[in-house]
Amino acid sequence: MSPDLGSATDPDVVLVGGGIMSATLASLLGVVAPEWSITVFESADAVAGESSDAWNNAGTGHAALCELNYTPAGADGRVDTTKARTINEQFMVSRQFWSHLVRTGLTGSPKDFISPVPHVSFVTGEDGRRYMRARHQALSAEPLFAGLEYTDGHAELRDWVPLVMDGRDPAQVVAATRSVAGTDVNFGELTRLLLTQAEGRGVQVHTGQRVSGLEKLDDGRWKVTVTDKRSGEERSVRTRFVFVGAGGGALPLLQRAAIPEIRGFGGFPVSGLFLRTRSPELVTRHQAKVYGQAAVGAPPMSVPHLDLRLVDGEYSLLFGPYAGFSPKFLKAGSMFDLPLSVKPNNLSSMLGVARTEMALTKYLVTELLQSRGARHRTLLEFVPLAEQADWEMITAGQRVQVIKRDPTSGKGVLQFGTELIVGGDGTIAGLLGASPGASTAVSAMLTLVQRAFPERVAANRAALEEAIPSYGRDLSADPGLLAAVRADTMQTLELNG
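The line above is the sequence of Probable malate:quinone oxidoreductase; the predicted structure tokens follow.
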């Protein structure tokens, strides 16, 4: 991965940002268009330094096994599994593609980026238990969630999550589900492995190069202006296709490209803090990822969770997130990112959200004013015997939530998820938003490839089906295929414990 731009020529494809999305797209293009030349520009001195970095996210392989916000209950108490089913299916697509890459020479061991970790959902109180029973009943009927366990017994929970149960009132009503099919994913390491493999087949990866301009030329190509962060020198390349996978930096670049499809879109940045411990005693007593329920008014990305992490061969526990606010769109961004993103075409969307999301505003203000002691008391709800001295505070990555205009009402709405923007002529695209992002990167980039390069997909369908056996099929409707995919990915990714 070279900081030298001298070797950059006019490629077929330019990928802006060296994170998991660009790395995934580079790998998929290696399947459907192996002869194309690809160049990646990353503004930082190394790839995977922002949202893809292991400590800038919780590393949950988001499969809706434990995330309660993906299984909302209606007024009648019935749990809707639609979103959970979709996300689980998407994560299975990622696992299939990663398995294909491992078989075809991805450097290193799968254990470098993915490891088995049980996923647990945990609630307290009678209402919580009632919901958890309904959730378990609904998910258990889905083939994708086969084997999901339920308990409301203290004794069994002490076996599942002893650290969570130590010191807990034995009279407290508790309930939980557990899936032993969960994983912990180091998306930073996975990104580096994907880009290293891509370089091996000729993809050019340039770091320390900030894309400062995107201009559509008369011949249909894009002029991509790049500034060397060390020397300040500007260079440009011309390309037939641009993907803006720059995390929080995607919105300003797409606005700069002035494509009609970005009109009306805005972004609301939310920062996050986590408590982390590397205490061997605590880590030994918590071998799981445990997700609870979000506080009233809190965004879905702020669901409290206590996660076992494996990063660079070392285990630790992560608790949070505690929400914060910064106008930056990236950790290494500018304090002017938010105000400069406000344009005449998205002002009404931004103001509309400001009026309707008062609960979120109140929540963020409360979070910002929390003392260290108050944050520790939140931890005590999960870990009753936690000692403040065992935990340190770390800053996670910036997340820019999508603000878009509702086509029906015309009002601005805040969207918690991801949004794929594809230019009308299919020569430019970008990804906005946050969770479940990285876990569903393969599905997101596969959708992009299908929309931007349908002829390449049609011509290389057999290669896609080899890389992703469930391509074009519904795993939840095909038990035989689901069983085969599960067995293959578990063996190839070494997820059997």
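Note on the example: Residues 13-456 form a domain with the FAD/NAD(P)-binding domain fold (CATH 3.50.50.60). Residues 207 and 277 are 32 Å apart (CA to CA).
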